[in-house]
Amino acid sequence: MPLSVRVQSYTAPDPVDGQGIGTPSLPVNDGEQNKRLIALSQRIADYSRAERLAPVRVGWQALSGLATAATWDVQPAPDSDASAAAADVVRRVLGLGGHTAPVIEWDGRVVSLPSWESRLRDLLRGALLGFSLAEMVAYPYEGTTYVDLEPRDQSSVRQWVYDNAGRLVAVDQWRRQPGGLSSVGSVRLPYERLVHLTYPSPAYGVEGLGIMRHVEPLARDYDQTMRLRAVMMARTASPTPTVTINAEAYGRELGTTPSPADIATARDELLGVLRKWTAHEEAALILPSWATLDWQGKPDAALPTNAVISDLERQIFQAFYVQHLTVGSASSSGAYATAQVHAELAAQLAGDLCQWVAEGLAGYVRQIVALNVGPLPLRDLPRLTYAGIRSPLWVERVADVVSLLSNGVLTPSADDERAMRAALELPAPTAAAESRGERARVAGTVAQVERASALPGGL
Questions:
Q1: Tens of pLDDT along 264-283?
Q2: What's the rounded Cα separation, in Å, for the pair 447 and 137?
């Protein structure tokens, strides 16, 4: 991991109260057996090479695509007008709730700030690599202070800076030059100006434990097996022609026993014919009756490696929880129900990633509120929310709910409606909707049949 240093004195740049609590340091190499993945720069370089492979790219795109497809919003604290106003400012800064990514003028130039989806993709890479680092940069424009998150490359971290109390106070970053990162100069970034997310939690230290730690060894084996298959295919795809001279048959054609000189002459003639044919100077290969053609090398010699490659692909997809992508392929088997279970697991992990981002950006949201509205009590701070990840999977079970209602197994109470709305990620019912009776709740869903009275006159 990068070096860590301690400083005797440190002056923070006007921190916001309650922000920058620091992260306890836990070396990522505790228990690490793979020496290649101990140093941060080497680890990120290996992760980047593995990410260029097709299964790794597809697996991460499938998982992160579920997370970025969520519908995000900013929820104010209940019964707080100040929180509602702050939530509207946060939506405008982040480009949520109908607002688009802001375009502002700063220092005489037009700056197009990234959309929320772009910010989210950068932050989610922290789950892939172990941690994400972004600097909060403020742009005052037309009465609103837009706070952008400028991502910092994980490999650019030179060292983590702690004070005497063991508190993380800054990060030293290598300066970036046109040819890459500088190994001479660095810049110190105060921790109060950084958004630092560690995956899966701060308990794993400042560098976390990313999903790629499980994927990289598999990707390395996959790459080596693919290269081996390419070599085997190159050697066996075009078999080598071999001609055998039957001396007895050749002697019958000559009418005498062929001498070594005769055999050498016949061999040279056959080699000339084979060279012209392999060089495509001759369209057909015509051999005498005393010469037998054979082939060295089997075109299907590389087939055994295909099973190994398919197994590695499946394991890589499993690490991303998207193994349902392989169901039904030539090297896999499974039914729709199995794929559905796997898809629910992927949606659950995507929801966990969204929750990880939402919790990690609490300090960022507070900074936006502090610069635009002013300090608010913690209980009045708005928070990021997401929806729309698990609900498509739950919709398929609505038919089962209707069946339970029609058979009288499920009583449609107000609690049932709230639970179903929460599972479908729908807004909470209104007061009028909660006051409805059982008959009103099932109207239009279950046919209402009036039961005939057993008393005379219908009484």
A1: 888 888 888 888 887 888 88
A2: 59
